[in-house]
Amino acid sequence: MSAITNLAASMDSMHQIFIKAAADIGDTTSLEQLDAVDAALLGRGSSISESRRGLGAIKDPEERRNTGRAINDVANQIKDLVASRRATLAATEEATALAADSVDVTLPGRMPPRGTQHLITQTIAEIVDIFVSLGYTMATGPEAETEFYNFTALNIPRTHPSRLESDTLYLDYGDEDDEVLLRTHTSPMQARYMEIHDPPVYVVVPGKVFRADATDSTHSPVFHQVEGLAVDENITFADLKGTLATFAREFFGKGTKVKFIPHYFPFTEPSAEMHAYSNGRWIELMGCGMVNPAVFEHVGYDPDKVTGFAFGMGPERLAIIRHGITDAHGNNDLRPLLDPDERILGQYL
């Protein structure tokens, strides 16, 4: 800009600068644009700055003073316009941001997907709950067991096939007189519990068990059992039948029919299998029987003073029956319960 030589010219120039500045400021639509316009209007290379540098060329002090005052008035007016526009743009941007971030509190909530327990775990918990409601106590025992508790204390003779390595998984631990193995059933807790508890005893024992089996529709090398034991004075087979029939009706429904078929177990005498009528056929649910007096002798109970019954069931089998888990041919199948794909397991939850 050329040097300002008279007041009239300076006033006209400042007026033009102000008119253009007001238009440029009004055209801005964002704080970033406004910052750029502000620098162009009032910065080092702006017309206002050039006008101030030209004041030195005005010889008349009065004219120089009035011209400087006019430049400052325009600069202050531009600053006021910039501040006003900045407040407006800031409020607009804030309102836009709040609108984009707003939450309609009247909308239904979005629940994240929740995990759940495995179907086998749920089944075990329900079985235990039923027996606890009947007055039983839950107990657990070691999965690595000695040969004495797994076999001998339960009146299983040394010649029994289940003691062979073809059926039982032995561990490289212990000694020849009492080898250590992965327990083949939860029944060892019968002896362990009675050793440290005087009668009466009402206990239910869930847990994992191991056998040298290949996986197919009905077998797995690792599965679960729930063992039960009741020991008291004058317990009879009728008590056994009433207790287990009550359990079946609580688990499968009040109209569930049951029957007991004679069987053989070394640790119970007499022994039986309990069957339940489900889906148009009789299905084996569990083994049971009156505790063999030899088992009482191993744990120091007097078989002339107490009697009792024991039972054992597979939670996998009960889950399969209740939920109708079958293969393509409609036969009960254990393998879907062992599949880690949650799409498969989710069908039964």
Descriptive report:
This protein is an alpha+beta fold and 349 residues long. The protein is 42% helix and 21% strand. The protein has 2 domains: 7-100, no CATH class; 119-348, BirA Bifunctional Protein, domain 2 (2-Layer Sandwich), CATH 3.30.930. A 7-stranded mixed β-sheet has the order 1-5-6-10-9-8-7, with helices on both faces. Strands 2-4-3 form a 3-stranded antiparallel β-sheet. The longest helix has 40 residues, at 61-100. It is rod-shaped, with a radius of gyration of 45 Å. The two termini are 83 Å apart. 28% of the residues are buried. The model is unreliable at 1-5 (pLDDT under 50).
Which characteristics define this entry?
disordered N terminus; rod-shaped; 349 residues; alpha+beta; BirA Bifunctional Protein, domain 2; 2 domains
Compact summary:
The protein has helices at residues 7-27, 31-42, 47-53, 61-100, 119-133, 147-150, 188-196, 237-252, 293-299, 315-323, 335-338, 342-345; strands at 137-138, 144-146, 170-175, 178-182, 201-210, 222-232, 258-265, 268-278, 281-291, 307-313. The chain is of the alpha+beta class and 349 residues long. It has 2 domains: 7-100, no CATH class; 119-348, BirA Bifunctional Protein, domain 2 (2-Layer Sandwich).
